[in-house]
Structures are given as structure tokens and as C-alpha cells.
Amino acid sequence: MDLSVVNHEDYFAKIGDDHKFPINKFGALAKYLIKKKIIKSFYKPYSCSEETLKRAHSEKYIKDVKNKTLDQRIIKKIGFPIIDSVINRSLVATGGTVLASKLAIKNGIACNTAGGSHHANFDGGAGYCVFNDIAVAAQYLLDRGLAGKILIVDLDVHQGNGSADIFKDNRNVFTFSMHSKTNYPTKKSISDLDVELEDNIEDKQYIETLKFYLRQLNKENFDFVFYVAGVDIHFNDRLGKLKISDQGVKNRDEIVTENFFLKGIPLCGVLGGGYNKDFNKLIELHSILHKSCAEII
Ligand SMILES: [Zn+2]
Q1: What is the pLDDT of residue 18?
Q2: CB 3.0–4.6 Å: which of 6, 19, 107, 174 could bond 100 by disulfide?
Q3: Alpha-carbon distance 274 to 286, whole Å?
Q4: Exposed (0-12), middle (13-18) or buried (19+): which is 212, by Cβ within 10 Å?
Q5: What residue ranges in 69-114 does DSSP mark as E strands?
Q6: Taking 90 as the threshold, does the pLDDT of residue 17 lie above it?
Q7: How far, in Å, from the CA of 274 to the mean position of ligand 1?
Q8: Are 3 and 297 in contact (CB under 8 A)?
Q9: Ligand 1 centroid distance, CA of 114 (Å)
Q10: Concatenated DSSP letters for 178-242?
Q11: Is 286 helix (H, G, I), strand (E, B) or coil?
């Protein structure tokens, strides 16, 4: 079976080529996945509806984003200008993770070519995240009875603080974040399971630590998994402070996707962060998620 991957040309937004966020990676990743024959075609998402967004974000925040009346302080925290293409991409990328999660239930595994906006909170965005697509999609599945006990495996170099906050009182969603101790956010939130890594951790120890926690998580009976596959753990990343190699990223993605897929637990993979100094390397690293999923399905 071919892997289901969700993509939309509007994942790209006009924030300017000199912006610190490598926005061009979205178009480039989609082209790369086709060119390397990892997949043949994409599923196209709709913009996420207000009804669906409202289950993970306050009505005021959603309206302020859509009407461009957001407080300057929050705009600064987000780090993107709140312009039409950014608003549109945030809605479409969130719709993309919702669609990918439904495809994961149908086919066992599916991915978005964006998503992983884990810093966005109930009433405001932060750290290049406008809407928390993972939280919105998780709530969507719960509301429709499509999942009952969801696990978020967040292996981005930064803590998934927004997801942790949104679900702190929700017993149906378990948040697991394994991240660099010294990276953003300075003040960490409390996930259900936080693993803080030292910056000098080596591939071998990183993988062993991951396997240890996956074994613990395997004791629970989760019926759906979101995987935030941030590649900012790579040694050549501009923001991430960990020093994981190409092979380490590959091992990580294969271990996580296999762990759940082979147990028949639907997995939805989302991109997460990546700010590699080498743009072509960044695309290659992000594609490892899709490649790992395409190979096991
Ligand atoms: Zn990150």
C-alpha cells in the first residue's frame, strides 16, 4: 500500500527569504518526496474549520488571528507577521494534520508535510506556531470517538510545551516530550512525561534512552499516536543544541514508526522543527519521516 501523505501548496507563506524560519522547505519537501519516488501523490487538505479549532483554542484567539487584531505581544512571541498567507497556511496546515490523522486510522499510518506546531497554547501562539495542529487533531479524534487514549510522542529538540499545557487536565491525551534541556522554552511546562537531554548526548545513548521510554509507553493501551518528528536534533541545526547525526535521525524515525505500526496502533507523523544550516540537508532530514513510514506500510 502507498503511504498517505497530506500536502498543500499553501503551506508556503510569503514571510520573505531572509526570515529566520526556512519557509521554503515546505514546497521543496513535497517536490523531493515525489522526485525520490517516496510517494506518488498527495492528499489535499481543507482549511481547518473554526468549529474544530475551537476545541483546542479560545474563540478570542482564533478571531484575533483571522481578523488580524492580535496583540503585538503575541505576534512577537509567534515570530511570524500575521498576514493573509501566514493565516491561511496556519489554517491549512492544521486541516492537514486533521486529515492525516483520519487517514492514519484508515490505513494504519499517514503523514503531513507540515505540522507539529507544539508551542501554540489555548489562547495564543508562540515560537513559529500559530495553531497547535496536533492538539486540534487529537481533540477532533476524541470528539468523534475515533480514538479514546491518545499518545503524543514529541521528539523535536524543543519541548512540546503548548501541547502539554492544552492537555494538562485531559486524561485521554498523554504528552511525552524528549528534548534538549537548554533549548527554548527556557521555562518548561509539565508534560505527562518529560525527558530532558544534555546537549552532548551521543547517538547511541539518545537511541537507548528513546527505546527505554518507548518500552514504558508500550505498557499503556494507547489507541492513537501523533509523532512530532522535528529534525532540529541534528548536529548542524542552527537552533537545536543536540548533536545527533543523519543516521541517528533515521534510526529514531524507524524505531518510533515501527514500534507503533507493528502493534496496529495508528500513527500520524507531523514535521516539527528543522533549521539546518544546509537547506538541502534539511529537506533530506525531514523526508526521513515519510521514507520510514512508506517503507513499513
Ligand atoms: Zn523545534
Answers
A1: 83
A2: 6
A3: 8
A4: exposed
A5: 109-112
A6: no
A7: 6
A8: yes
A9: 13
A10: EEESSSSPSS----SEEEEEPTT--HHHHHHHHHHHHHHHTTS--SEEEEE---TTBTTBSS---
A11: helix
Compute, in angstroms, the gap from residue 101 CA to the centroid of ligand 1. 21
1 pLDDT higher than 90: no
Read off the pLDDT of residues 176-231 as tens digits, 9 standing for 90 and up. 999 999 999 999 999 999 999 999 999 999 999 999 999 999 999 999 999 999 99
Side-chain half-sphere of 273: how many Cα atoms within 13 Å? 27
User: Residue 192 corresponds to which cell in the numbers above?
Assistant: 505527562
Q: What is the Å distance from ligand 1's center to 273 Cα?
A: 4
Angle at 208 between CA 119 and CA 149, to 5 degrees: 50
Q: Are 166 and 242 in contact (CB under 8 A)?
A: no
Run of H or E including 154: strand 150-154
Residue 34 has pLDDT above 90, yes or no: yes
Give me 92's grid cell.
Answer: 491549512
The three-state secondary structure class of 76 is: helix
Q: What residues have their beta carbon closer than 5 A to ion ligand 1?
A: 156, 158, 230, 232, 273
In the reported structure, the alpha carbon of residue 145 is separated from the centroid of ligand 1 by a whole-number distance in angstroms of: 30
- Cα(155)–Cα(60) distance, integer angstroms: 30
